[in-house]
Specification:
The chain folds into 2 domains: 4-53 and 77-127 and 253-307, Major capsid protein gp5 fold (2-Layer Sandwich), CATH 3.30.2400; 131-252 and 311-320, no CATH class. The chain is 29% helix and 23% strand. The protein contains 8 helices and 13 strands. It has helices at 9-24, 98-128, 154-166, 185-193, 195-204, 212-215, 272-278, 286-289; strands at 34-38, 46-50, 77-81, 84-91, 134-136, 179-183, 224-228, 234-236, 240-247, 252-257, 280-284, 298-309, 315-320. The strands form 3 sheets. Strands 5, 6, 7, 8, 9 and 13 form a 6-stranded mixed beta sheet that branches. Strands 1, 4, 10, 11 and 12 form a 5-stranded mixed beta sheet that branches. Helix 1 crosses helix 2 and helix 1 packs across helix 7. The longest helix has 31 residues, at 98-128. The chain is globular. The protein starts with 8 loop residues before the first helix and ends in a 5-residue tail after the last strand. 33% of the residues are buried.
Length: 325
């Protein structure tokens, strides 16, 4: 019986949506990058422009009627990205009954969605977290100085915020103009033990089930929205060191080929067209690859990814220790 070959186009779209819904929760770094796609038959390179903030004179000069003012001084660099291909697959067992095959395909679709998202997010993280603006915790001046008691705290957040503001980084318009911070779970645990952070939860919202201190979620704090990711950097130095990334709007970018790019689609019937474009989930029936006897089938995914830093001073990597070691 040709199990996979009998899956309809509509069923495949539903599987893609399930994969995206599962994988979306794993996206952190890719979620906050500037996105662009290369259209069909439009080549394999996409161009971004690296435009730092314009210089503001200390004493702006008023315009003189009838005279052309001096040109605004600025620099623009082109950033060309050639996305690369990534993917994975596995052979399906040949001894499945119809119902067990459908169940297995559904579960594998979810796992491949998570796997694809984690691979893409790791690639984006590897670019975004190597920026030149680094903040070492407490009194440390280099990574090897960091100890377990130099933890992620309110003081570290305020220092990074000051850096971003002085560098003219903006918050995210779709996050109420807040900055974004992606941090390791051990850094998040230390922040939740921070006295200033706990007090902000106690006094900002009445006691009850809706208070973030009870549901364990990291709330927005000091104009920053937090996302915990187990993909956040962990460096093995004299002690374990963890890297949080504080991000301003349009600091880095993500590019791919249309139809083969993991995107921010959470699923739902209204997103069918987007689902078709966001992830290529490949289900190959027995008659396609099963050989002379048509007994082998496969399931897998493939997609494209490219990423670059646009304005490095709009991101701060905060390296800390952790009380959890």
């Amino acid at each position: 019986m040709k199990l996979l070959s009998e899956i309809t186009a509509a069923q495949k779209i539903e599987l893609v949506k399930r994969a995206l819904m599962a994988g979306f929760s794993r996206l952190a770094y890719g979620r906050f990058a500037e996105h662009a796609e290369i259209g069909e038959n439009a080549g394999d390179v996409i161009r971004y422009w690296r435009i730092p903030p314009f210089t503001v004179p200390s004493s702006p000069v008023a315009l003189t009627p009838g005279e052309t003012p001096s040109e605004t001084t600025y620099t623009v660099d082109k950033v060309d990205i050639t996305p690369k291909w990534y993917g994975g697959f596995l052979w399906m067992p040949t001894d499945l009954k119809v119902q067990s095959a459908i169940d297995l395909i559904s579960r594998l679709s979810v796992n491949f969605g998570i796997n694809a998202s984690e691979i893409v997010d790791t690639l984006t993280k590897n670019v975004a977290t190597v920026g030149s603006v680094v903040q070492y915790a407490s009194t440390a001046t280099q990574r090897t100085d960091i100890t377990d008691d130099m933890v992620f705290s309110t003081a570290e957040i305020l220092e990074a915020l000051n850096t971003l503001r002085e560098n003219k980084a903006m918050g995210y318009p779709n996050a109420a103009m807040r900055y974004i911070c992606i941090l390791h779970s051990r850094q998040a645990a230390d922040l939740q033990k921070d006295t200033d952070f706990k007090n902000s939860l106690l006094y900002a919202k009445e006691r009850g089930d809706d208070n973030p201190i009870f549901d364990g979620m990291l709330s927005d704090y000091l104009g920053v929205r937090f996302f915990v990711s187990d993909l956040a950097p962990k460096y093995v130095s004299t002690k374990n060191v963890y890297g949080a990334l504080m991000i301003g709007y349009q600091a880095y970018c993500l590019a791919g080929i249309s139809g083969y790019m993991i995107d921010e689609i959470e699923g739902g019937s209204e997103h069918e067209d987007e689902a078709k474009q966001a992830l290529k989930l490949l289900i190959k029936g027995e008659e396609a690859i099963g050989g002379p006897l048509e007994v082998k089938s496969s399931i897998g995914w493939k997609g494209t990814h490219g990423s670059e830093i646009l304005v490095g001073t709009w991101m701060v990597r905060i390296e800390t220790g952790s009380s959890l070691g």
